[in-house]
Q: What sequence folds into this?
């Protein structure tokens, strides 16, 4: 608990210092411009299509699809504390990002590959990459005692989070500083939710639950169905990358 509190304090301090810098965006303009130019030089049709699909994971429609699936699975196992912690992490970061966008009103970069109508700072995609997807990884690791599985899942989750952030810079819809602060916001909310969950489980019982073959099959079906809905949204939802 003390370790989580220390990490949380450090994260808040980092966010405070970075947000102060966001008040003078010119300070970061050289770094932001350099990264934007570097990424634009590597654009290709295949990479653009790949990063469009990756960035699609952070869209509200995709989050709704996977969020409903996660809710159903957690409710099936009566994991009410974990479900509440998940929404604290996700909704907390979303509200924080929306508030910061409203406060700073930073314009989007020029030369983006598609139009985003909201403000640029900070990146909501980067925030949910941690507060949504990495927090789900954390919940899965809590339930598993397989060390190899947990390490593989952690590596996969971190890789996905990084790719979501990179996709925002590659597609030209965010500056590097937007993405970094988005990550910090997501990290603070995820750590806060994890600390609350740990505190609750140390006071009340949060037992591990063994899954039967039938339960695993149902969970697998829910996951596959959610992925199919995501693919349908990607193909038919009007989110088409430029050629």
A:
């Amino acid at each position: 608990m003390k370790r989580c509190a220390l990490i949380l304090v450090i994260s808040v301090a980092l966010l405070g210092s970075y947000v102060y810098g966001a008040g003078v965006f010119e300070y970061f303009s050289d770094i932001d411009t350099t990264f934007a130019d570097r990424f634009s030089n590597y654009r290709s049709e295949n990479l653009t299509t790949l990063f469009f699909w990756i960035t699609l994971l952070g869209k509200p429609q995709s989050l709704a699809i996977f969020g409903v699936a996660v809710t159903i699975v957690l409710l099936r196992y009566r994991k009410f504390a974990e479900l509440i912690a998940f929404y604290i992490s996700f909704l907390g970061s979303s509200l924080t990002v929306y508030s910061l966008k409203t406060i700073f009103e930073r314009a989007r970069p020029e030369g983006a590959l598609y139009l985003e109508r909201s403000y640029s700072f900070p990146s909501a995609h980067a925030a949910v990459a941690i507060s949504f997807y990495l927090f789900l990884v954390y919940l899965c690791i809590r339930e598993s005692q397989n060390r190899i599985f947990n390490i593989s899942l952690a590596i996969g989750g971190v890789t996905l989070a990084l790719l979501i952030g990179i996709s925002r810079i590659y597609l030209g819809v965010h500056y590097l500083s937007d993405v970094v602060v988005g990550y910090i916001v997501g990290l603070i909310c995820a750590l806060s939710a994890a600390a609350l969950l740990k505190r609750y489980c140390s006071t009340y019982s949060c037992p591990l639950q063994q899954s039967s073959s039938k339960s695993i099959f149902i969970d697998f079906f829910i996951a596959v169905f959610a992925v199919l809905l995501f693919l349908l949204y990607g193909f038919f939802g009007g989110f088409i990358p430029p050629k």
